[in-house]
Amino acid sequence: MMMDPRELRIDDFDYSLPDDRIARYPLPDRAAAKLLHYREGTVTDRHFRELPDLLPAGTLLVGNSTRVIHARLYFPLPTGRTVEIFCLEPLRPVDYALSLSATQGAVEWKCLIGGNRRWKSGSISLPVHQADDTFTLVAERLERTDDTFTVRFTWSGPRELSFGELLEAAGTIPLPPYLGRAAEGEDHHRYQTVFAEREGSVAAPTAGLHFTPQVMEGLVDREVDFRTLTLHVGAGTFKPVSAPNLGGHVMHREYFSVSIELLHRLEAQLRAGRPIVSIGTTSMRCLESLFYLGARGMTEGNWENELGQWVATEASVSRTDAAPALAALIHHLEMTNSESFTGYTQLMLTPAARPRIVDGLITNFHQPRSTLLLLVAAMVGDAWKDIYQHARETDYRFLSYGDSSLLWRRSAGA
């Protein structure tokens, strides 16, 4: 009988992480990072440039094509102080691409506001210099929901400029809070993967930061098939689990988009029994969400594009096999003449249920007591403790700019 993930204690996913083990800056050479390789209880130490040699020929490798936006904006106030507006996700238009490409009218975003009490009333403006021109970006605070605000942005200038271009010119890269520093010039390049294409994230899918063109060429030589999906990483990925049990934690929601071509490729890989490896926890969260979306559609006829936090506990869904679930999702797209499945996932992955799509996970080393560490435990079970102890004892660098690991899924019953 499957355990109820809501009863899992977060204290069981804690470990000591000394401050000096957190990598504050990236290595000059992305692929020079250490790579911990774990399979069936065995740990070996490699370097990331050796990754292609560790993947069997015929592996399907899936990365996240999201690109981090310059989401932090600092608006001056008449008092001489500033207000920080942190853009989280678009509300009007709700589509990321449409909002970021908008060149006129107004866009509305869900935002965090630092120094909100200083912003007494009315709109505030920020001069934005782009090329040889100066634009004015205006922010108007609308309604509040819990700790976030709806902010309407309008802008004007001598020529047409998209909201995304304004963010690029006026904003800064939102580095994770645990790095304890502001973004610097190098971060604008290094906090993006080499396969980043679609703007929308406020945090990088950091497992992909180790890839280089040379590593990508090695994958081709090894006959590894590299594909991408998109999941825009939200600030909630850093939200700590403060409740004693997971049942008291509200998982953050993230936008994703997967093409029908990738779904066909995933189904074929599953039916052939060949490995599927996820580059990072964000890709894995999306891939596993596809299983639950397809399984729910098969068993309940429910094709909504939002997935809840505890769907893995539903018995009818959990008994479904992976390949038929993806086939059902493909059929649904074909019947609706859709080229992709786009939606939102709130799925929490825990060791209470084994992954259904992903065989291997490439990932960095995560914070204690985090939902990302729970996801690692979903892959390897209690072995995460030995893996993390080994990493600490052998000088691995931790968190976003740290070293990497390749973890293979635990056997059934483990």
Automatic annotation (TrEMBL):
<dbReference type="GO" id="GO:0008616">
    <property type="term" value="P:tRNA queuosine(34) biosynthetic process"/>
</dbReference>
<keyword id="KW-0413">Isomerase</keyword>
<keyword id="KW-0949">S-adenosyl-L-methionine</keyword>
<keyword id="KW-0671">Queuosine biosynthesis</keyword>
<dbReference type="Pfam" id="PF02547">
    <property type="entry name" value="Queuosine_synth"/>
</dbReference>
<dbReference type="InterPro" id="IPR036100">
    <property type="entry name" value="QueA_sf"/>
</dbReference>
<dbReference type="GO" id="GO:0051075">
    <property type="term" value="F:S-adenosylmethionine:tRNA ribosyltransferase-isomerase activity"/>
</dbReference>
<protein>
    <submittedName>
        <fullName>S-adenosylmethionine:tRNA ribosyltransferase-isomerase</fullName>
    </submittedName>
</protein>
<keyword id="KW-0963">Cytoplasm</keyword>
<keyword id="KW-0808">Transferase</keyword>
<dbReference type="InterPro" id="IPR003699">
    <property type="entry name" value="QueA"/>
</dbReference>
<dbReference type="InterPro" id="IPR042118">
    <property type="entry name" value="QueA_dom1"/>
</dbReference>
<dbReference type="InterPro" id="IPR042119">
    <property type="entry name" value="QueA_dom2"/>
</dbReference>
